[in-house]
Amino acid sequence: MSIHTALELIKNESLSQEKSLLEGVFEKTGLACIAGATDTGKSMILRDFAIAISQEEDYFLGFKLNSVHHKVIFVSTEDSMCKTAELLKIQTEGLIDESLERIRFIFNPEDSIDEVRKALEIEPVDVIIIDCFSDVYEGDAINSNETRSYLKKWQKIADQYSCLALFLHHLVKRGESVAPSKHNLHGGQGFQAKMRTVAELRTDIRNKDKRHLCIVKGNYLKAEQKDRSFVLYFDPENLRFTSKGEREEYNNLYEKPIDYERVNNYKKAVELKKAGLMGKEIATQIGTSEATISRLINEGKKNNWDRLNPEDDESEDLQVV
Q: Comparing C-alpha atoms, which of 303, 295, 307, 310 is closest to residue 263?
């Protein structure tokens, strides 16, 4: 048993000066997660992160990177050894070969925790990447107590070896049709509850080469880190990501079902405006405020509501674009 007083903790310089691994995103130790739907590039961004650490880069996607050992353990259960080699050749083109020895892969382990612990006894790392959680965890993902009990084993490893355990995880089926949230993760609440940081990676609804990194949980992060996405650009030629420092409102990241009542009111407002009525008069006839009518007309024009017929079958596949 280890007991420390509050004064002892405060006076410990090594504790008070500890930096995050990726400032504004991931802590130096503990558990974290990147989740997303299929084909968003989750594995590629994790390999990209591992490469940045091995190259001793100071920044990754615009965030300050504070790696100490410049080493990574990558547990791969989804991509085969051959496929990983193929993708790495593209992602690491032009890089120094020797530095890539700092990334050690473990493919389809029988006991991931045991094999990772053995690898850590050989040399320390900054991060253990587990791609993916559902393959290394054989329990009931819905059972929160069971999930938390399993994750405690990874927490002990992270604490003992002063590193981050970063999991790739998946979203529920409806995940990309709603706003980014920690509640979009597959399985019970036990998984996200044990994470210090949960980030969602999702593809832009209009640009297939654009991604959004959404930090939906960060125990020690400022609110402004979690209220909008960090816009990333995916290069299909080198399979890597870049950032231009852009942010995007969560409300713009998913297609919302059409509100046909608003479409109908928009069309009424447009007809009344064509008939010569002023904003206040239009608002009186529709039963709302003049400011609402102004916003309604702008929204309808932006989303091309003139092409929609509210009297048609309101099928779910019609979406605002």
A: 310
pTM surpassing 0.85?
no
- As a three-state string, the secondary structure of 10-53 is HHCHHHHCCCCCECCCECCCEEEEEEECCCCCHHHHHHHHHHHH
For 190-203, how does the pLDDT look when each residue is reduced to its tens digit (9 = 90+)?
999 999 999 999 99
Residue 42 and residue 36 in contact, taking contact as beta carbons nearer than 8 Å: yes
Give the separation between CA 203 and CA 182, rounded to whole angstroms: 17
Evaluated on CA atoms 110, 114, 117, 123, the torsion sign reads negative
CATH number at residue 222: 3.40.50.300
Domain count, the chain: 2
DSSP state of 266: H
Per-residue CA distances from 231 to 40, 201, 253, 262 (Å): 13, 10, 11, 30
Please say whether the beta carbons of 78 and 86 come within 8 A: no
Q: How distant is the alpha carbon of residue 126 from its chain centre?
A: 20
Side chain identity, residue 298: N
Supply the range of the domain harboring residue 289: 260-307
